[in-house]
Amino acid sequence: MTGSHALFGDTLTIAKRIQQDILDELGLYVTVGIGDNLLMAKLALDNAAKHQADGIAEWRYADIPETLWKINELTDFWGIGSRMAKRLYALGIYDIFDLSQAPESLLKHHLGVIGSQLYYHAHGLDFSKINEKYVPTEKSYGKSQILDRDYQDPVEVTIIIQEMAEEIAMRLRTSGVDTATIFLHVGYSRFSTLRGFRHQMKIQPTNSSRVIKQTLMTMFWKYYQDEPVRSIMITCGSITPKNGLQLNLFEDLERSYKSSNSIQP
């Protein structure tokens, strides 16, 4: 907010203006967290803003003993889920004050780099910057659906899978990239005794609708267990730039070209 003060006023004034703008345009009441860094603002939002009459909470470094260290549930802290909480319990750490008093060396020894991060976070220290652009190491393309009903007929399920695959393949071609890993997750009905299956298959880099569909059909019929289906998720990973077209000696050249580059199936 520092760079916006000259234009819109102090941080609290800006927060109230954002709230009012959202209320006027969308009819939604929103809460706001304010802090000296991203972490403190996030924690103020999650733990205090909803309890304030105006929906705004402000946590500063000077207030850490009365704010951050008063978080009693470890899972109410950013970055700590139920599994991490159990690991901290095993170290005799039961709340955020305990976490702040634990030696960094102990946390790092048992939790690795995450332990050091939690140590600094427990003291309100966060070195990330909001203007830093995050670039993922690997991009993936995917689509998921929770179906409107339980599908008993597997043929109907295959039609949906192929429609989803076509959409993903079109996005791959539009982006000029290939995929080399196809992942399929099929979730069964909540009334089924089985949960479903999830599997992946490595393939030659491609963005061909036909190849992606064939791969998904192979996995589906191999692992499907004659149960009603309620959810489907497809992900294409191992993304690489499209550098050329690998021809198949046993397939017509024109068909190979069209299936790899055409928007249509």
UniProtKB/TrEMBL annotation:
Its domain of life? Bacteria
Q: Which Pfam families match?
A: IMS, IMS_C, IMS_HHH
Q: Which InterPro entries match?
A: DNA/RNA_pol_sf (IPR043502), DNA_pol_Y-fam_lit_finger_sf (IPR036775), DNA_pol_Y-fam_little_finger (IPR017961), DNA_polymerase-Y (IPR050116), PolY_HhH_motif (IPR024728), Rev_trsase/Diguanyl_cyclase (IPR043128), UmuC (IPR001126)
Q: Which UniProt keywords apply?
A: DNA damage, DNA repair, DNA-binding, DNA-directed DNA polymerase, Magnesium, Mutator protein, Nucleotidyltransferase, Transferase
Domain UmuC: residue ranges: 16-81
What PROSITE patterns does the record point to?
A: UMUC
| Family matches, as PANTHER family | DNA REPAIR POLYMERASE UMUC / TRANSFERASE FAMILY MEMBER, DNA REPAIR PROTEIN HOMOLOG YOBH
Q: Which family does it belong to?
A: Belongs to the DNA polymerase type-Y family.
Protein's name according to its UniProt entry: DNA polymerase IV 2
What's the source species for this entry?
Answer: Listeria floridensis FSL S10-1187
